[in-house]
Amino acid sequence: MVMQGWKRRIVYVVMFEVLGILVASSVLGMLSGASVAASGLLGVMISTTGVTVNFLYNLAFEAWERRSAATTRTVGRRVLHAIGFQVALVTFLIPLIAWWLDVSLLQAFLYDAVLIVFFPIFTFAYNWAFDAVFGLPDAVTRKAEPAV
């Protein structure tokens, strides 16, 4: 089944977030001893926070880029973007996790560290599986059109 365009993007995001919430909630529940309801709601809050921070961070990053003389995104700039986003996200998640689970900031950091390690692996596997099920996007499969 090949899926393209906005439908592909929406299905991708919804499935990613739902699966991510289920897995992250389960892991946090097992590590913390929190109930399924408590860890499930925490997973939803983490997901919502992640999406919000991502949106706002990208707005700020792109505003900074507009003031820059560079016209491309170098590897260094991409690394800066990724590290900056993780720092911003952790800044919001650690207090949230500590408050919700009633644990110390250090314990919340350790729980978040598990998520920081987990999500790149999850993202890699999810993308691979998603492409296997729904096919590659047109941007990958479309042949370059000859210049006229």
Structural notes for this entry:
Residues 5-67, 73-135 form the Chlorhexidine efflux transporter domain. Keywords: Membrane, Transmembrane, Transmembrane helix. InterPro entries: BTP_bacteria (IPR007896), PACE (IPR058208). This is Membrane protein. The chain crosses the membrane at residues 12-31, 37-59, 79-101, 113-134. The structure is a single chain. With 148 residues, the chain is mainly α. The chain has one domain. 81% of the residues lie in helices and 0% in strands. The protein has helices spanning 5-32, 36-66, 75-101, 105-134, 138-141. Helix 1 (5-32) crosses helix 2 (36-66). It is globular, with a radius of gyration of 18 Å. The two termini are 33 Å apart. 11% of the residues are buried.
Secondary-structure element series: HHHHH
Globally, the shape reads globular
Mean pLDDT: 89
- Proportion of residues in helical segments: over 70%
- The domain count comes to 1
What is the number of helices? 5
Beta-sheet strand percentage? under 5%
Largest sheet: none
Low-confidence stretches: none
Structural class estimated from helices and strands: mainly alpha
User: Rg to the nearest angstrom?
Assistant: 18 Å
Oligomer, anyone?
single chain
Count every beta strand, where a strand is a DSSP E run of 2 or more residues.
Answer: 0
Give the termini separation.
Answer: 33 Å
InterPro entries: BTP_bacteria, PACE
Transmembrane segments: 12-31, 37-59, 79-101, 113-134
Protein name: Membrane protein
Domain Chlorhexidine efflux transporter: 5-67, 73-135
